[in-house]
Amino acid sequence: MKKIAYLAMDVHARSCTLGHMDEDGTFIGNRYFATSEQNIIDALKSVRAKNKILTIEEGTLTHWAVQVARPHVIEVIACDPRENALIFKSPNKKDEVDTHRLCRLLRLGELKHVYHTFNDDRAIFKASAQHYLDFRDQLTRLKHKIKAAYRRWGIIDVFSSSIYSPSGRDKYLKKIKHKPIHGQIKRLYYLMDQTERMRKSALHSMKQLGLKYPEIREFEKIPGIATINAHVFDAFIQTPHRFATRSKLWRYCRLSITDRTSDGKQLGYKRLESSGVSELKALSFRAFMAAMRGDNEVKRFYLDSLNRTHDRKHARLNTQRKILSVMFGLWKKGEAYRPELFSGSA
Question: 82-125, pLDDT tens digit by residue?
């Protein structure tokens, strides 16, 4: 029996492929089976090795597969497929080839991990936040469609928010002369109203799930954060201990700077990181804009940064990073929020 087995599993809705490489780098082969919890367990148990390390590329089924596999291996790694250029850019891409290459990258320690919580409650909370954001985005798209429909038929002045209200929309509908178009816009209004009800229901569910996490109450005390931003940040981050430093958090939130050089020469302009969670970057921007409306510690931090940098964009990004850093720090240390946390260097 070998000491270590490096395993890679390609999981699909109908079938799975499990690749096996031993500690010497010899590829033992693949095993194919229909996708089910018991089949995954049986396949992992069939590998004869004292220590089994498994990797699975991030996808729709990954969270479920990771939870199924964890009790039967010493470590399971969900990896980022975008980082595995050897696999997804290969002209010869097949499941059996992919698992071989994944095993090799796993053995060499060349995989970029994607965080998956051990706690189902946290995963459910994140799914609840994503569910709410999906309805929010759908509602926005429907509103854009309604405005576009009016303008297509010559109703240009649709800048007021009353176009969406039950009492105000009748005024705009009367301006539509063609009965079929009138009916089309009414259907869009019906979808909008239904989506708004679902959005409110999803928001209520997210808030109920968030009651068990006391750090959310502290986040809400920060100027500009408010209830929804606090819940979304907590749901997506899941635990502050997944990030060793603030800079890694900034990168996850698309607020770190990329700097690409070769032979001492700059490759393109410095810019913000493109990988990560765009919703968290947007969250920090919304919090910044909301905080700028009043006199508070966040605005004072921004003005201090602006005084030092003489660059509004630089000062704004500094403030967005500071907001996230304060949330990250008080959560990691289990502290209560204090305005003095924004009195540090800008």
Answer: 887 666 566 566 778 889 999 999 999 988 888 888 778 999 99
DSSP type of residue 54: E
Query: What CATH superfamily classification does 2-108 receive?
Result: YqgF/RNase H-like domain (3.30.420.140)
Q: What sign does the CA torsion over 315, 319, 325, 326 have?
A: positive
Between CA 284 and CA 287, with CA 286 as vertex, the angle to 5 degrees is 65
Residue 74 DSSP label: S
Contact 305/346 with Cβ under 8 angstroms?
yes
pTM of the model: 0.85
Domain locations in the chain? 2-108, 120-210, 215-342
Provide the β-strand partners of residue 79: 57, 113
Each residue's pLDDT tens digit, 5-49: 999 999 999 999 999 999 999 999 999 999 999 999 999 999 999
The CA distance from 283 to 137, in Å, is 14
Q: Residue 229's CB: how many other CB atoms inside 10 A?
A: 22
Please tell me whether residue 6 adopts helix, strand or coil conformation: strand
Q: What is the DSSP letter of 113?
A: B
The burial class, CB within 10 Å (0-12 / 13-18 / 19+), for 54 is buried
Phi, psi of 36 (to 5 degrees): -165, 160
